[in-house]
Model the fold of this input.
Amino acid sequence: MREIVLDTETTGLDPAAGHRVVELGCVEIMNMVATGKTFHVYFNPEMLMPAGAQDIHGLSDEFLADKPLFGDQADAFLEFIGDAQLVIHNASFDIGFLNAELARLGKPKLANPYVDTVTMARRKFPGQRASLDALCERFGIDNSSRTKHGALLDSELLAEVYLELSGGRQRDLGLAPEIAARARVEGGTAIAIRPPRPHAASIAELAAHAEFVKKLGEAALWLKAEPLPQA
Done:
């Protein structure tokens, strides 16, 4: 299953009031594993950056002045996400802004299915904080480089949070690297090979087994069976 973890940074809180997207970051995951493919763009919002917004993400008018307009990258963005399920923290916010940008270009709204990780977190941990920083702390995810909000960094952190919320790290009990290293391919399919377990019993174990069998007496029926002929 292909999913795109997505985050935006904006000039404000309300696209209906004319606020714009200034950064978009996407991380591709396939079957709960990051593929390394990303989409990341800064945009010139064609408006001055409010001080409050700049305090959050650190993107200044000077930095964004030479960046492309959203319309310059819209098709590339839509091609990257395709029909994948989107994974977004507080999805209504980001989707609302992206749909407003697409509407300015005369393009249809996003039709992708999506997962809201805020909703997931509140269901799993009712009454607990559900911010990205709080979830990183809960799951032991290093977010020390997150001194400001950034769309790509936040998407990368959210991908790890999403994996934890989905129980992804428990699915293979942390054995995925070892299993992959011992896999062989048969007919295009990877077959995991478990190495043989040690089976040579120690002298003490043999003695304990003999003592146990002695206590069974007549119940040890296999001792009365005829030995199989040797090949």
About this structure: The CA atoms of residues 25 and 152 lie 4 Å apart. The chain has one domain: 2-178. Strands lie at 2-10, 21-30, 33-42, 85-88, 114-116, 183-186, 189-192.
